[in-house]
Amino acid sequence: MQQSVIIEQILFLAVLVLIGVIASKIRVIREKERDGLVKIIFNITLPLLLFTNFSKLEMTPEILKNSYLLIIISLVVIVLMLLLAWFSSLFFRMNHAQKSVFIPHNAFGNVLYFGFPVVNALFGELGLFYASIYAFVSIMLLWTVGIYVITRKGGTSFRRSMKNMINPNSVAILAGFILFLLKVKIPGFLLKPFVSLGDTTIYLSMLYIGALLGLMQVRGVFSNKYVYLTSINKTLLFPFIFILGFAALNNYTGVIIDPLIVSVVIVEAAMPCMANIVIIAKMYRVDDQLATANVFISTLMSIVTLPFIYWLMSQFL
Fold first, then answer.
1. What are the beta bridge partners of residue 297?
2. Rounded CA gap, 179 and 51, in Å?
3. Confidence band (pLDDT; 50, 70, 90) for 105?
4. In degrees rounded to 5, what are phi and psi of residue 2?
5. Predicted confidence (pLDDT) per residue in 152-174, tens digit
6. Residue 122: which of 12, 244, 239 has the closest Cα?
7. What is the largest CA-CA distance in the chain?
8. Is the distance from CB of 250 to CB of 60 less than 8 angstroms?
9. In angstroms, what CA-CA distances link 193 with 14, 35, 48, 50, 89?
10. Which residues of 83-106 are buried (b: 16+ CB within 10 A; e: fewer)?
Protein backbone atom coordinates (compact mmCIF):
# COMPACT_ATOMS: atom_id res chain seq x y z
CA MET A 1 0.00 0.00 0.00
CA GLN A 2 1.36 3.38 -0.95
CA GLN A 3 2.67 5.76 1.71
CA SER A 4 0.25 8.38 0.41
CA VAL A 5 -2.71 6.31 1.63
CA ILE A 6 -1.89 6.71 5.30
CA ILE A 7 -1.03 10.38 4.87
CA GLU A 8 -4.33 10.95 3.03
CA GLN A 9 -6.27 9.11 5.74
CA ILE A 10 -4.60 11.01 8.57
CA LEU A 11 -5.31 14.29 6.79
CA PHE A 12 -8.93 13.19 6.38
CA LEU A 13 -9.15 12.41 10.10
CA ALA A 14 -7.28 15.61 10.96
CA VAL A 15 -9.93 17.67 9.15
CA LEU A 16 -12.66 15.94 11.15
CA VAL A 17 -10.72 16.59 14.37
CA LEU A 18 -10.31 20.24 13.37
CA ILE A 19 -14.06 20.54 12.90
CA GLY A 20 -14.47 19.23 16.44
CA VAL A 21 -11.92 21.76 17.73
CA ILE A 22 -13.71 24.64 15.98
CA ALA A 23 -17.11 23.43 17.20
CA SER A 24 -15.79 23.45 20.78
CA LYS A 25 -14.25 26.90 20.39
CA ILE A 26 -17.50 28.43 19.14
CA ARG A 27 -19.33 26.53 21.92
CA VAL A 28 -21.42 24.32 19.67
CA ILE A 29 -19.83 21.44 21.54
CA ARG A 30 -19.33 22.19 25.22
CA GLU A 31 -18.28 19.84 28.01
CA LYS A 32 -21.85 18.62 28.45
CA GLU A 33 -22.24 17.83 24.74
CA ARG A 34 -18.74 16.31 24.60
CA ASP A 35 -19.51 13.97 27.50
CA GLY A 36 -22.83 13.07 25.85
CA LEU A 37 -21.02 12.38 22.59
CA VAL A 38 -18.58 9.96 24.18
CA LYS A 39 -21.49 8.15 25.88
CA ILE A 40 -23.19 7.69 22.50
CA ILE A 41 -19.95 6.39 20.97
CA PHE A 42 -19.00 4.13 23.87
CA ASN A 43 -22.47 2.67 24.47
CA ILE A 44 -24.09 2.60 21.02
CA THR A 45 -22.11 3.19 17.83
CA LEU A 46 -18.77 1.60 18.77
CA PRO A 47 -20.31 -1.63 20.13
CA LEU A 48 -22.34 -1.91 16.92
CA LEU A 49 -19.20 -1.37 14.84
CA LEU A 50 -17.33 -4.03 16.79
CA PHE A 51 -20.24 -6.48 16.77
CA THR A 52 -21.12 -6.23 13.08
CA ASN A 53 -17.53 -6.25 11.84
CA PHE A 54 -17.34 -10.00 12.54
CA SER A 55 -20.35 -10.61 10.27
CA LYS A 56 -18.51 -9.12 7.29
CA LEU A 57 -16.00 -11.95 7.18
CA GLU A 58 -16.16 -15.63 6.40
CA MET A 59 -14.38 -17.82 8.93
CA THR A 60 -11.48 -19.77 7.52
CA PRO A 61 -8.95 -21.96 9.35
CA GLU A 62 -6.28 -19.32 8.66
CA ILE A 63 -8.33 -16.46 10.16
CA LEU A 64 -9.19 -18.59 13.19
CA LYS A 65 -5.53 -19.52 13.74
CA ASN A 66 -4.47 -15.91 13.30
CA SER A 67 -7.07 -14.77 15.83
CA TYR A 68 -5.64 -17.00 18.56
CA LEU A 69 -2.11 -15.95 17.61
CA LEU A 70 -3.10 -12.29 17.68
CA ILE A 71 -4.44 -12.58 21.23
CA ILE A 72 -1.03 -13.85 22.39
CA ILE A 73 0.93 -11.24 20.40
CA SER A 74 -1.29 -8.38 21.61
CA LEU A 75 -0.90 -9.53 25.21
CA VAL A 76 2.89 -9.70 24.89
CA VAL A 77 3.15 -6.29 23.17
CA ILE A 78 0.99 -4.44 25.71
CA VAL A 79 2.68 -6.09 28.72
CA LEU A 80 6.08 -5.16 27.27
CA MET A 81 4.96 -1.53 26.96
CA LEU A 82 3.81 -1.60 30.60
CA LEU A 83 7.15 -3.03 31.73
CA LEU A 84 9.20 -0.55 29.69
CA ALA A 85 7.13 2.30 31.12
CA TRP A 86 7.55 0.96 34.65
CA PHE A 87 11.36 0.85 34.28
CA SER A 88 11.29 4.38 32.85
CA SER A 89 9.27 5.64 35.83
CA LEU A 90 11.85 4.16 38.21
CA PHE A 91 14.73 5.69 36.27
CA PHE A 92 13.18 9.16 36.37
CA ARG A 93 12.08 8.73 40.01
CA MET A 94 8.47 9.69 39.38
CA ASN A 95 6.09 10.09 42.30
CA HIS A 96 2.93 8.00 42.68
CA ALA A 97 0.60 10.48 40.93
CA GLN A 98 2.95 10.80 37.97
CA LYS A 99 3.57 7.05 37.63
CA SER A 100 -0.15 6.36 37.88
CA VAL A 101 -0.66 8.20 34.59
CA PHE A 102 2.72 7.69 32.92
CA ILE A 103 2.70 3.87 32.99
CA PRO A 104 -0.80 3.21 31.59
CA HIS A 105 -0.51 6.02 29.02
CA ASN A 106 2.66 4.43 27.65
CA ALA A 107 0.82 1.14 27.09
CA PHE A 108 -2.78 2.01 26.27
CA GLY A 109 -3.47 4.05 23.16
CA ASN A 110 -6.48 5.47 21.41
CA VAL A 111 -7.01 2.14 19.63
CA LEU A 112 -10.78 2.57 19.33
CA TYR A 113 -11.54 6.19 18.47
CA PHE A 114 -8.40 6.86 16.43
CA GLY A 115 -6.98 3.43 15.68
CA PHE A 116 -10.02 1.83 14.10
CA PRO A 117 -10.51 4.51 11.41
CA VAL A 118 -6.81 4.36 10.48
CA VAL A 119 -6.69 0.54 10.42
CA ASN A 120 -9.95 0.34 8.47
CA ALA A 121 -8.61 2.72 5.81
CA LEU A 122 -5.23 0.99 5.55
CA PHE A 123 -6.08 -2.69 5.87
CA GLY A 124 -9.81 -3.04 5.23
CA GLU A 125 -12.34 -5.27 6.98
CA LEU A 126 -9.90 -8.06 7.87
CA GLY A 127 -7.51 -5.53 9.36
CA LEU A 128 -10.36 -4.07 11.41
CA PHE A 129 -11.27 -7.57 12.57
CA TYR A 130 -7.71 -8.06 13.86
CA ALA A 131 -7.76 -4.57 15.38
CA SER A 132 -10.93 -5.54 17.28
CA ILE A 133 -9.08 -8.45 18.86
CA TYR A 134 -6.16 -6.19 19.82
CA ALA A 135 -8.66 -3.74 21.32
CA PHE A 136 -10.33 -6.53 23.27
CA VAL A 137 -7.00 -7.53 24.84
CA SER A 138 -6.23 -3.86 25.52
CA ILE A 139 -9.60 -3.35 27.25
CA MET A 140 -9.09 -6.43 29.41
CA LEU A 141 -5.62 -5.30 30.52
CA LEU A 142 -6.72 -1.70 31.06
CA TRP A 143 -9.48 -2.68 33.48
CA THR A 144 -7.23 -5.08 35.38
CA VAL A 145 -3.53 -4.20 35.30
CA GLY A 146 -4.17 -0.59 34.22
CA ILE A 147 -6.70 0.11 36.94
CA TYR A 148 -4.41 -1.52 39.50
CA VAL A 149 -1.52 0.76 38.48
CA ILE A 150 -3.71 3.87 38.61
CA THR A 151 -5.50 3.03 41.86
CA ARG A 152 -3.03 0.87 43.78
CA LYS A 153 -3.16 3.42 46.61
CA GLY A 154 -6.84 4.06 46.13
CA GLY A 155 -8.16 0.81 47.56
CA THR A 156 -9.78 -0.51 44.37
CA SER A 157 -10.25 -4.26 44.71
CA PHE A 158 -9.36 -6.80 42.06
CA ARG A 159 -13.01 -7.85 41.99
CA ARG A 160 -14.07 -4.28 41.19
CA SER A 161 -11.48 -4.07 38.41
CA MET A 162 -12.76 -7.32 36.91
CA LYS A 163 -16.31 -5.98 37.07
CA ASN A 164 -15.23 -2.88 35.13
CA MET A 165 -14.09 -5.13 32.29
CA ILE A 166 -17.73 -5.84 31.49
CA ASN A 167 -18.83 -2.95 29.29
CA PRO A 168 -20.71 -2.61 25.99
CA ASN A 169 -17.51 -2.80 23.90
CA SER A 170 -16.00 -5.88 25.51
CA VAL A 171 -19.41 -7.59 25.39
CA ALA A 172 -19.85 -6.63 21.71
CA ILE A 173 -16.44 -8.03 20.77
CA LEU A 174 -17.02 -11.26 22.68
CA ALA A 175 -20.56 -11.73 21.33
CA GLY A 176 -19.52 -10.99 17.77
CA PHE A 177 -16.56 -13.34 17.98
CA ILE A 178 -18.72 -16.18 19.36
CA LEU A 179 -21.29 -15.77 16.57
CA PHE A 180 -18.40 -15.66 14.12
CA LEU A 181 -17.00 -18.95 15.46
CA LEU A 182 -20.47 -20.55 15.38
CA LYS A 183 -21.09 -19.20 11.86
CA VAL A 184 -24.35 -17.57 12.98
CA LYS A 185 -25.52 -14.84 10.60
CA ILE A 186 -27.32 -11.69 11.79
CA PRO A 187 -30.70 -11.21 9.99
CA GLY A 188 -30.52 -8.65 7.20
CA PHE A 189 -33.22 -6.37 8.64
CA LEU A 190 -31.02 -5.97 11.76
CA LEU A 191 -27.62 -6.07 10.12
CA LYS A 192 -28.15 -3.11 7.79
CA PRO A 193 -29.17 -0.52 10.45
CA PHE A 194 -26.56 -1.92 12.86
CA VAL A 195 -23.81 -1.51 10.26
CA SER A 196 -24.97 1.95 9.21
CA LEU A 197 -25.10 3.23 12.77
CA GLY A 198 -21.79 1.57 13.64
CA ASP A 199 -20.09 3.26 10.68
CA THR A 200 -20.82 6.68 12.20
CA THR A 201 -18.27 5.85 14.92
CA ILE A 202 -15.44 7.12 12.73
CA TYR A 203 -16.94 10.58 12.34
CA LEU A 204 -18.27 10.89 15.88
CA SER A 205 -14.95 9.73 17.33
CA MET A 206 -12.99 12.35 15.43
CA LEU A 207 -15.43 15.05 16.54
CA TYR A 208 -14.98 13.84 20.12
CA ILE A 209 -11.17 13.98 19.93
CA GLY A 210 -11.40 17.46 18.40
CA ALA A 211 -13.75 18.62 21.15
CA LEU A 212 -11.47 17.05 23.76
CA LEU A 213 -8.48 18.94 22.41
CA GLY A 214 -10.43 22.16 21.96
CA LEU A 215 -11.72 22.16 25.53
CA MET A 216 -8.38 21.35 27.13
CA GLN A 217 -6.60 23.90 29.27
CA VAL A 218 -3.24 23.87 27.49
CA ARG A 219 -1.52 26.41 29.75
CA GLY A 220 1.63 24.82 31.17
CA VAL A 221 1.33 21.74 28.97
CA PHE A 222 4.57 22.37 27.11
CA SER A 223 6.72 22.72 30.24
CA ASN A 224 6.26 19.15 31.56
CA LYS A 225 9.09 16.86 30.39
CA TYR A 226 7.08 13.70 31.15
CA VAL A 227 4.53 14.71 28.51
CA TYR A 228 7.21 14.55 25.82
CA LEU A 229 8.69 11.35 27.22
CA THR A 230 5.28 9.67 27.18
CA SER A 231 4.41 10.90 23.70
CA ILE A 232 7.76 9.88 22.20
CA ASN A 233 7.60 6.45 23.84
CA LYS A 234 4.02 5.79 22.78
CA THR A 235 4.03 7.06 19.22
CA LEU A 236 7.64 6.49 18.16
CA LEU A 237 10.09 4.57 20.38
CA PHE A 238 7.97 1.56 21.38
CA PRO A 239 6.57 0.94 17.87
CA PHE A 240 10.12 1.16 16.48
CA ILE A 241 11.29 -1.43 19.03
CA PHE A 242 8.46 -3.74 17.95
CA ILE A 243 9.31 -3.26 14.28
CA LEU A 244 12.90 -4.33 14.99
CA GLY A 245 11.66 -7.21 17.13
CA PHE A 246 9.33 -8.61 14.47
CA ALA A 247 11.99 -8.11 11.78
CA ALA A 248 14.54 -10.02 13.87
CA LEU A 249 11.99 -12.77 14.53
CA ASN A 250 11.38 -13.20 10.81
CA ASN A 251 15.01 -12.94 9.70
CA TYR A 252 16.87 -14.90 12.38
CA THR A 253 14.45 -17.50 13.73
CA GLY A 254 12.54 -18.44 10.60
CA VAL A 255 9.23 -17.74 12.38
CA ILE A 256 6.95 -16.12 9.81
CA ILE A 257 3.92 -14.23 11.13
CA ASP A 258 1.18 -13.00 8.81
CA PRO A 259 2.32 -9.49 7.75
CA LEU A 260 -1.22 -8.15 8.23
CA ILE A 261 -1.20 -9.21 11.90
CA VAL A 262 2.17 -7.56 12.46
CA SER A 263 1.08 -4.38 10.68
CA VAL A 264 -2.16 -4.06 12.65
CA VAL A 265 -0.43 -4.65 16.00
CA ILE A 266 2.28 -2.08 15.31
CA VAL A 267 -0.14 0.56 14.02
CA GLU A 268 -2.39 0.06 17.05
CA ALA A 269 0.63 0.16 19.38
CA ALA A 270 1.64 3.48 17.78
CA MET A 271 -1.68 5.18 18.52
CA PRO A 272 -1.63 8.33 20.71
CA CYS A 273 -2.43 8.13 24.42
CA MET A 274 -5.88 6.88 25.43
CA ALA A 275 -8.34 9.68 26.16
CA ASN A 276 -10.35 7.60 28.65
CA ILE A 277 -7.40 7.57 31.06
CA VAL A 278 -8.00 11.30 31.59
CA ILE A 279 -11.45 10.45 32.97
CA ILE A 280 -10.07 7.58 35.07
CA ALA A 281 -7.28 9.79 36.45
CA LYS A 282 -9.74 12.48 37.41
CA MET A 283 -12.03 9.92 39.04
CA TYR A 284 -9.25 8.51 41.23
CA ARG A 285 -7.57 11.87 41.92
CA VAL A 286 -4.19 11.26 40.37
CA ASP A 287 -2.45 13.64 37.94
CA ASP A 288 -5.31 14.24 35.48
CA GLN A 289 -3.59 17.40 34.15
CA LEU A 290 -0.63 15.27 33.08
CA ALA A 291 -3.06 12.81 31.50
CA THR A 292 -4.77 15.62 29.59
CA ALA A 293 -1.44 16.94 28.37
CA ASN A 294 -0.37 13.46 27.25
CA VAL A 295 -3.47 13.10 25.05
CA PHE A 296 -3.01 16.59 23.59
CA ILE A 297 0.68 16.27 22.68
CA SER A 298 0.64 12.62 21.56
CA THR A 299 -2.36 13.22 19.30
CA LEU A 300 -0.60 16.13 17.63
CA MET A 301 2.63 14.13 17.31
CA SER A 302 0.83 11.16 15.76
CA ILE A 303 0.02 13.21 12.66
CA VAL A 304 3.76 13.04 11.90
CA THR A 305 4.81 9.83 13.63
CA LEU A 306 2.17 7.49 12.15
CA PRO A 307 3.29 8.02 8.54
CA PHE A 308 6.90 7.65 9.71
CA ILE A 309 6.16 4.39 11.54
CA TYR A 310 4.33 3.10 8.46
CA TRP A 311 7.39 3.98 6.35
CA LEU A 312 9.66 2.15 8.81
CA MET A 313 7.40 -0.88 8.55
CA SER A 314 7.83 -0.87 4.78
CA GLN A 315 11.61 -0.74 5.19
CA PHE A 316 12.12 -3.41 7.85
CA LEU A 317 9.18 -5.82 7.50
1. none
2. 9
3. very high
4. -65, 150
5. 655 556 666 566 667 787 788 88
6. 12
7. 57
8. no
9. 27, 24, 10, 14, 46
10. ebbbebbeeeebeebbbbbbbbbb
